[in-house]
Every structure is written in C-alpha cells, then in structure tokens.
Design a protein that fits this description.
Blueprint (H helix, E strand, L loop, with lengths): L2 E4 L5 H12 L14 H10 L6 H12 L1 H8 L4 E5 L5 H4 L2 H4 L3 E6 L2 H14 L4 E6 L17 E5 L9 H16 L7 E7 L4 H7 L6 H17 L8 E8 L4 E8 L3 E5 L2 E5 L4 E8 L3 H10 L3 E7 L5 E7 L2
Parallel strand pairs: 1-4, 2-3, 2-5, 3-4, 5-6
Antiparallel strand pairs: 6-13, 7-8, 8-11, 9-10, 12-13
Length: 320
C-alpha cells in the first residue's frame, strides 16, 4: 500500500502573506511553485511534448543511453526521493535499473501527485512507495516513514535552475545534509542540469509557437484568483519568456496589455500597460560551473553524462 502524507499545511494566511509581499513589491513577482496547481501541472506535461522544449527529451535520451553506467555508479537498493515528482514518469523509467528499496515522491501539487503515485503503485506493486505533499523549496522535513539508509535525491528536469545561484548552493547543501543525517552514509544526488547554448534555442523553448508555455504562465493568474480571492483578467495579460545573456538565465513574465487595477481581499494594485509580474527564472550553467557548485555544497566523486550536442547533462554525486 502507498502511504500518502500531507505536509503542505502552511495555512492560508502564510500563502497569502508570501504572495502579497511579491505582488506589492516595486517589481512584482511570484515564486514559480505557484505555477503548479492541478491544471498547471498538466500544462507542464504538455510543454514537455513540444518540439521546442528540448530539456525533457534530451534528458530522457541521456538516461536511456547511459542507464547501465548510471545504475552502476549509484548501486541498487537506494531510497529514491523524487523532488518535484510531477507525474513520476522520469523516476519510473529508472526503476528497472536502480531497483530502489523505496520510492518517495515529493511534490507541491498534492492532487496531481496522489493520482500519479496511485497509478505507479499498480505498475510496481513490489516497491514500497510514499507520496509526500510538501513545498520542499522552503523546507525538507521528510516523514519518519522515509528510510534514512542510502538516500538518493533525484532532481531531474533542470529544476535547479529555478533557484538563484546562491539559493541553489544553499539548497544543495541542505540535500547533502539530508543524505548523511543520523550517521547514515552512502547517499547522493542524481540531478539534471540545463547547459548554456544558443539564445535562439533557449528563447524558443520558453516561448513556443503553439502558446502552451504562455497558457502555463497565464494559468498562474487563475491560481492567484483562487488563493487570494483576486480578480485578475487573464485576457488582459500576455506571456513573455526570453534568455537574459548577462545573468545566464531564462526569465518569464506576465505583462499587462492595458492599464488596470487588480483587487484582492484587503488590497489592490494598479498595473500600468507594459508592467510585468516576474514568475520564473531558469539559470543555465556550463558543465564545470555546476560541478564546482556541487563540490562547494559538499558532494564528491561527481560523474556526469551528456548528449552529443552538449545541451544538457545528468550528474551523480556522492554525499560522503
């Protein structure tokens, strides 16, 4: 039987306080975690099928081509902790090679996670599974039912790019500590990292011709309406996504197409035409820069695999 554990009990007031602090800032912004309500998670699944969005298929090709080598580097019997598990498909493809002793799916989108892990348990009934509804970007307090032995944190899809570099370092250090707590060793990290490449490729990946990424970004406004009892009009905003060369990151925004006033319980904000809400960053690394980041975080014995074009890489690093 799968265990479903809900740790996402921040409380409505805590969520509202975080959102309103961002929306009332001089340059309005929200955390990318709020992109992933139930519909947002489904829209991101669709993004991963787009021809322009290379990260998912390129990462999948790396895992497929180097599966045996990756499995040998990790070893069997890990406690596989899937951060931002989504539909769990990426982890599931590794089950035959890794043969995990336990699979722990962690995601902020609780309803979506519940459905995904239920389906997965039917496919792999012999694997102990735990589904944890949690915002791991702020705290990683895993329940007692998660094995402490041989923890392998799995963070695919270049999601590490959503953190600013100094935040990424702090997050990686936290994962390293979680691998080796209570004296258990042998753990590590398996992570996907998007690499620097031509701006035209990056721009297309985050502003596709069909407009699926635009829908994904605009859906945030519907989520905000529910969370804040707000009155954002989706039709009065447009998606902007592009690569900032100077900061080495993709930036995503929602841009007001007209002057407007948005109201929510206890407050409001006037947005000028062209004013933006910053919704996501996605930093891109060189291979050496990211390996250096892992070393700074306390990981060692870093191994990496890439595609022939050097667009993406998968790293395995040991925690002790």
């Amino acid at each position: 039987m799968t265990q479903f554990i809900q740790l996402l009990e921040q409380g409505k007031q805590t969520i509202e306080d975080e959102l309103l602090a961002g929306l009332n800032a001089s340059c309005a912004h929200t955390s990318p975690k709020f992109l992933y309500d139930a519909l947002g998670s489904k829209l991101f699944e669709a993004i991963c099928e787009l021809p322009e969005y290379y990260p998912t298929r390129t990462e999948a090709e790396i895992f497929s081509r180097h599966a045996r080598d990756i499995a040998q580097s990790i070893g069997a019997g890990a406690t596989l902790i899937d951060l931002g598990a989504g539909n769990c498909a990426k982890a599931a493809r590794l089950f035959p090679q890794l043969q995990p002793a336990q699979y722990v799916a962690v995601d902020i989108s609780v309803e979506f996670l519940h459905e995904a892990v239920s389906r997965l348990q039917h496919r792999f009934p012999a694997i102990d599974m735990v589904a944890v509804g949690m915002d791991f970007s702020t705290e990683l307090a895993l329940p007692d039912s998660v094995r402490e032995e041989n923890r392998l944190f799995f963070y695919p899809g270049s999601s590490i790019g959503n953190f600013m570099p100094e935040q990424a370092l702090a997050f990686l250090r936290h994962l390293k500590e979680a691998c080796t707590q209570d004296g258990y060793g042998g753990g590590g990290l398996l992570i996907g990292v998007d690499l620097l490449k031509d701006k035209s490729i990056l721009d297309a990946a985050y502003d596709d011709a069909l407009g699926v990424t635009a829908s994904f970004n605009l859906n945030l406004l519907l989520h905000l309406n529910r969370l804040l009892d707000a009155d954002f009009d989706v039709r009065a905003w447009r998606h902007r996504g592009f690569f900032n060369r100077q900061l080495s990151r993709i930036e995503m925004y929602l841009e007001a197409t007209s002057k407007q006033t948005v109201r929510w319980t206890g407050g409001m904000r006037c947005f000028e035409q062209g004013e933006r809400i910053h919704t996501e960053n996605s930093y891109k690394y060189t291979q050496q820069d990211f390996i250096n980041l892992l070393t700074q975080a306390g990981f060692n014995n870093v191994r990496f695999w890439s595609d022939p074009q050097q667009w993406f890489m998968v790293c395995h690093a040991q925690a002790a």
